[in-house]
Amino acid sequence: MQGYSGRKREGRRSATPFAALLCLALAACQTSGPGAEIAAIDTAQGSAENIASLTAVIERSPRDAQAYNVRGSAFGRAGRYREALEDFDTAIRLNPSYFQAYANRALIHRFKGDDGRAVADYNKALQLNPSYDAAYIGRGNLYRLAGRTREAFDDFQRAIQLDTTDPRAYHNRGLLYQAQGQHNLALEDFSTAISLAPNAAEPYNGRGVSYLALGDEDNAFSDFNTAIKLDGEIAEGWANQALVYERRGDKQKAMRSYRQALKLDPEYGPAKTGLARVQG
Question: Which residue intervals correspond to the TPR repeats (predicted)?
Fold first, then answer.
């Protein structure tokens, strides 16, 4: 059965669940919190006004490592990666034991395409704090996207053993179970991710794919529709919905959904091949 969840590439809104990873996973505070790549982006945190306010804090306390870490997170949310790196570098220089700043810097390195430095920073964060769940999740996602599934699974498993409340750990482990055909285990993990982030579309898409693989078309269709209601800008959701329409023989609705997926991402392979099938 062809499923569309959990691809390695990270393009526009049809990528792996959590394509907005950077904007959502930066840990500005001292705790990892529930911050997830599957939550709504708080654009205000990267606003010019917020950055100006944080700059004023730094001007008053220029040796406050946490202030640089927080502003670095804001720069990251705004897509200002060079300035984010500079702030995280400063935070680490002021406090070499600042494990959150290492993990935040790792995420910036990842989005600049430097996976080697990203892994090194996650390793350093975990050396400083072996119980830091966010670093296991961040490193695990890097491993997952690189095809290093065993190491990815171990990192997500470790975060879960630490009683993380971060839904990314369960969602990503669910993707690994799904890729191995262990759909019942995947369903459990996607359901846990949904309970932790009920307004996130991605775990519904993931769970729907596993329902479909198990022959539960009705629950799959319900999950895909919920995913679209929560975020209609993800091509994956529309392609998944189209697949159910296609299986039901409703080619007109399938074509509309595949076309909507391609409108969001003209290069989304599953939508291209699906549309070709129903038009053929």
Answer: 65-98, 99-132, 133-166, 167-200, 201-234, 235-268
